[in-house]
Amino acid sequence: MALHAAAPACAVFFRLPSSSPSHAGGRRSLPAVARPRGVVSAAPLRTRAVRTKAIFSDGVPETSNSPHVVCFGELLIDFVPTVNGLSLAEAPAFKKAPGGAPANVAVGIARLGGSSAFIGKVGDDEFGYMLADILKQNNVNNQGLLFDPHARTALAFVTLRSDGEREFMFYRNPSADMLLEEKELDLDLIRKAKIFHHGSISLITEPCKTAHIAAAKAAKDAGVLVSYDPNLRLPLWSSAEDARDGILSIWETADVIKISEEEVSFLTNGEDPYDDAVVKKLIHSNLKLLLVTEGPDGCRYYSKDFSGRVGGLKVSAVDTTGAGDAFVAGVLSQLATDFSLLQDEGRLREALKFANVCGALTVTERGAIPALPTRQQVLDALTNVVA
Questions:
Q1: What is the pLDDT of residues 55-75, one digit of tens each?
Q2: Residue 261 near residue 21, CB atoms below 8 Å
Q3: Which pTM was predicted?
């Protein structure tokens, strides 16, 4: 039997400042995903569309009541060093942890007791099936998750250096998440949701870009609330200009937007992200809520009727990966049950306190998904939040 070598991985390396959002009960394990028998080989080129859904071990497709929040985008493996304060090259060993911003949000919502689903693609490989299992174990609907036999599941190496900067190195050549096609989308899942959440990473390359735009349009046309977190990863784009144009290309379709301080500066060509007048330039006519995260200092909020700041919870950070996603999960888990929060500043502030604690608790452990808190953990920590 001939064995085929996997396509060479393409590494993309970059750093982010440590000020990226860092504030911001056991569950029953569901049956594991069925795995195909035999050797799975990867090919450098994807030659045909493959629609392989996540399934139960008895071979029956997963079904459930319509999830309140559907998250679209990337699902990958983060490799986090076992020792902090070292560069990626200096780290002696790495712990693998499931991640990917939209998937983090989906799991975060489920951990908080909400209802969520994930749409995306992973490789038809051991990491892909591990990730599918993790979604199931965390009560995330994964009927929109596909497996591609011709591309590997994406990998990312992440660490927090002693000088306060995060380092990332991605392996995508391409990875399976980049190959999702419009015809593979579960549009019914999207149309039945209350909230559709997405980022910008899947806007970078085709065919996923077209699929992404189609998914967002389906949500908008169905009257689903659209949530957007650009999650800027500049070196994945061909240029800063392309990144800015790509992120802003779907800006006005969003009802709720979450951005970091750095993203405010980037999108406004270097203007002061702490100046309310600068932030308000990013508010479009149909936007219901703009959130700006400020790491351990909490967040700012802007709507047509009110604006303000909500303090965060100070903690000792171990790994800031996924903190912003935990914050988004905290917001959307509450918004999905009551859209009137958008018109009530007092209740919105309470919801944002909750979300800030979600982010803060996440930075106290390594990895994104493994560190996402339960609702009870957040409630227990809320007493320490600055008003």
A1: 333 333 343 478 899 999 999
A2: no
A3: 0.83
